[in-house]
Amino acid sequence: MINKKVNSVKEATEGISDNMTFMLGGFGLSGIPENAIKALVDSNIKELTCISNNAGVDDFGLGLLLKKRQIKKMVSSYVGENDEFERQMLSGELDVELIPQGTLAERCRAAQAGFPAIFTPAGYGTEVAEGKEVREFDGKMYVLEHAFKADFAFVKAWKGDDAGNLIFKGTARNFNPVMCGAATITVAEVEELVPAGTLDPNQIHIPGIFVQRIFQGKDYEKRIEQRTVRVRE
Amino acid sequence: MLDKIGIAKRIAKEVQDGYYVNLGIGIPTLVANYVRDDIEVEFQSENGVLGMGPFPFEGEEDADIINAGKQTITTLPGASFFDSAMSFSMIRGQHVHLTILGAMEVAENGDIANWKIPGKMVKGMGGAMDLVASAENIIVAMMHTNRAGESKLLKRCSLPLTGVGCVKKIVTNLAVIEVTDKGFKLLERAPGVSVEEIVKATEGQLTIDGDIPEMTI
What PANTHER family does the annotation carry (chain A) (predicted)? Predict the structure, then answer.
């Protein structure tokens, strides 16, 4: 067993510095690496490029990094829920690249899988395709999109073991698996870290080979963005 | 004339047994409430769930189980969770049968604009560009005109496009319209709405072939 376990978020984030590019898992506030984000905020590193489907809310998730102006550029598909984000975007302080959600996922997966680029139909004929190579396959047009290059991927899983194997829960899975192994160093935080041999190999979603560091996360808030319920009849 | 619920009810009639369906935010979300209960349909949400169920009962919300609108949801028997790449494999790979989404504008050639208004805060396209570029069957749910009374069914979209030549059908508060290679074609009128009213509210080329039936919902 190759041991990937580190004992703290500080150890897990060793090597982070200004001007780096990070991938961060999560959809909205679901499945975000809460512990790693707090560590990035405390580290005071800046001029960061963050690849993440969303940009958090004002007082949680990536919103915490935005508030301290540590982010130079966001690469996302949807950024609607954050006033500070909007202010920085409109004032030009923050560079924002909006890309289709499936393209975001596949540019991560391409990096993970060793593809330099992929062809997707998404965005063809729109401003997203401007300046990009397009090609026709079987009568349909596709846009060439390049694999991301990132220094760190910060992901969050439900359970993991010392070997770095990961299991996700519900829709908190989202972008986390496709970011594993898509950056130079992948850091996984988990709600429950167990010794290798405890998890059933049949149930592993992401094998430990894609993870360089794993640690036991703590104090998960798991905030709900839109609490919708129905009335008991 | 239909209200939003009426539009959702009419679109629900397009959903067939055995369909996997992706619903956008807004009116499309309401469609799930009106699908016939004698057919089997599974709803996909692009953040990674197939077999989406209703909202949870109070106290049973789970931060790890949400839809693409970030709302807490439940799952039905047969449901599955997956990552974002697999989710868009279902969409781009045309495994999802029907996509229902809202729009700001649709053009007579099937172009759609629904993500950006120049000069206003741009929130992003989310999964909309992937959905419209790939789905075999796209139905747009929207009001026929905007708040200023201007047609949203145009010769050419004026707003930045989400996708080109992709919309197949449009259900509005006034009509059901098909997008053909000769432009819009009027299929049905909303209850109490005349053909003349629809013509007046439609800027793009609109073909009217014979008697246009009033829709049943």
Answer: ACETATE COA-TRANSFERASE SUBUNIT ALPHA, KETOACID-COENZYME A TRANSFERASE
